[in-house]
Amino acid sequence: MPTRNLPCNLDDAWSIVFDHYDPADEGRREALLALGNGYFVTRAAAPEAKADDIHYPGIYRAGLYNRLESHLEVESVQEESLVNLPNWLPLTFRIEGGDWFSVDQVEILSYRQTLDLRQGVLHREIQFCDRQGRQTRLHEQRLVSMKQPHLAGLQIELTAENWSGNIEIRSALDGQVENNNVSRYDPYHDQHLVPAIAEPLEPEGIWLMMRTSQSDIDITLAARTRVSIDDQVAELERTLDQEAAYMAERIQAQVEQGRAIAIEKIAALYTSRDLAISNGAEAAREAIQFAPNFNDLLDAHQRAWQQLWMRCDLDIAPVEYLCAMRLHIFQLLQTVSLHTADIDAGVPARGWHGENYRGHIFWDETFVLSFLSWRFPAAARSILLYRYRRLDAARYLARKYGYQGALFPWRSASTGREETPLYQFNPLSGRWMPDHTHLQHHINAIVAHNVWLYYNITRDTEFLCEYGAELLVEIARFWASIATYNPECDRYEIHHVVGPDEYHTAYPHADTPGINNNTYTNLMAAWTLCHVQKLFDLLPYSRRNELWHTLQLSQDELDHWDGVSRKMQVIFNQDGTLSQYEGFEQLQEFDLQQFEQQNDDQRVDWVIEAQGKDINQYKVAKQADVAMLFFLLSDAEVSDLLERLGYEFGRSQMQQTLKCHFQYTAHQSSLSNLVYAGALATFDIEKSWQLFDQVSFTDLSPEANTGTEVGIHLGAMAGTLHILQHCYLGLEIENGKICLNPCFPNQLERFCLNLHHRQHDLQIKKVGTELNIAAAPTNPNTVQIFYQGEPVKLQPGDLKTFQLRQADASG
């Protein structure tokens, strides 16, 4: 195992710790240590900091976007972005009228920053000396309440170690913010907020309201700042500072040597889109009026996190992986929690932790849902409802392309319109490159697969009847309409699309974008058409009748779907492996190893374009493409699907396919190694573990250099949990039954998780070469599972032990 410089506290695996201040790494830490609750997220910027080359205080509310028009060299474009909201953090101080405190302007004697994953609290401890030789100790605690989702707070305790005197405290709400977290977006407009109101609160506090310039959403912050001396709230002199989009209060206090002074700031965030309010400004003001003090807010917040961990915690060894997985669970729950269930928001690729990809929604929900559906079905359901609410927009997009049914956009935000930009800027060449990745129509298959996955785990029949069925039918209708019949081969084909690879968006020298018969797209289209047939068997007759009438279905249409699902074209190479798409094998060979030696971490497509060449000419993939089949589906499902299509395809061909495709994949996405780690689990467990190891520390390792400063890699984080649960443990639901087909790597010394399934609680634990499955004594009755295909019944309180098969490194 490679040695890593990880900031994990391996004594308890509950803490991420940085024991020194590093300005060059501050951006990554701000995202990695961000705090949130599913409603909003606050980056871990220092409260005294403003956005500059080191710091970026970002505040983001789930699903809050605004659209701006920018005039680029190539054309005028409209871009919808996740909005950086007014900053509630600003809190600083100065001693005897000196400089305002900044961690960048003092001599740091000691420094420690700790994210407590168990409690959901960020700590910062600094001992510093200012230019006058005054030595001070600072301890900050910060939280974004998991109990009261509109509230956040921080507390700073200052101890004067060698001085006494006056201290002036400045606490502010700052609306003078822009969206400038991502440097490559510099050519675009970034001012999303316009000021509305800033006023003092009675009897204490300040408030600020801003409004988004296009989506016309009011955002209100209110804050209350109190100072305590000797554990007693002090009545101190206050003055106000006010500018456009900025409100601050200054507080004067006296500090004695060796004594501590505590400053607490409680903030409330509301928007005009929130539920159960008259208006956001009134709600924020009232929230601050009735808000508890910091310690009481902290206590309720910690109890809420304790409840979450009771449902979500797992245990694995080696311990560094336990720390990483807990961080992944922590960040997943800060992005999608029970507070998200009533918010119309999808799953952003980088969490609500930064502005990369403008906070857009891609397909990352598929890496999140398997973990959430077992533990928080309401939150998982809300992710699917985000898609359902945009079904009409998807229908419109399908019609725009000349197809039937519904076509979901590759990138979406608030409305469900296609948000994929038509150009991307290449910083190596200084040119704008056409972007055709909006042709990734395979997003439709992900939506369909997620509906099916969620239903299988939860058996939420109400969701399937009211929402899921309509989604599946309209997606099936799209696939049947985009598939064209080729009489020469008596097969249906799908043309002019882009696969998950993303580098190949056209044929070399072609006048029109898109490639034909992408294997992943075609097979997942066939999978969808197969499963929509099963759908009607699950629905009550009355609901089937309603759908039949409302969607104007006919038996002829269903028969056509069945025919397409049995005659979809799949392209094979001469050696019997699956090709990425029709014509891929005829492309020029590309020496990926030599490229990486010469160009470090540069993007392949940028380097190729800067050389005046076309990436479409070369046999190199950005990320996993065909392998995605084996991540989503078991090898048995893939085999059955191809057999239905009339193709013979065994395990040896599957293994060879994955090996072949892996060799020409550049893995220039955090999801690429993740997908291969999952896909290879039953074929090459050693290789799977190597890739899992890399993905586990994508954000945590300072050596990874993966752009975490502009947002965590949420899909990769959640995907590691999926691999542990579904690929290594082999947990699946088939026909309502729990199935376990474990395939653990030898390096995973211990693995334990708790599952709740239909009123039954189970603990599944791997220790050494044994797997123990225990049914809780409180279970209402017997639960039946299938272990390696054999039925096993567990009475309440039963414990069954199984001998694990030795992992075969070659599959």
Describe it for me?
The protein is α+β, with helices and mostly antiparallel strands. 31% of the residues lie in helices and 25% in strands. The chain has 20 helices and 32 strands. Strands 1, 8, 9, 10, 11, 13, 14, 15, 16 and 19 form a 10-stranded antiparallel beta sheet that branches. α5 crosses α6, α10 packs across α12 and α18 packs parallel to α20. The longest helix is centred in the middle third of the chain and has 22 residues. The model has no long low-confidence stretch (mean pLDDT 95).
Oligomeric description of these chains: single chain
Distance between the termini: 21 Å
Instruction: Give the overall pLDDT as a whole number.
Output: 95
Fraction of residues in β-strands:
15-25%
The coarse overall form would be globular
Major beta sheet summary? 10 strands, antiparallel
What's the Cα radius of gyration?
28 Å
- Structural class computed from helices and strand pairing: alpha+beta
Task: Supply the number of helical segments.
Answer: 20
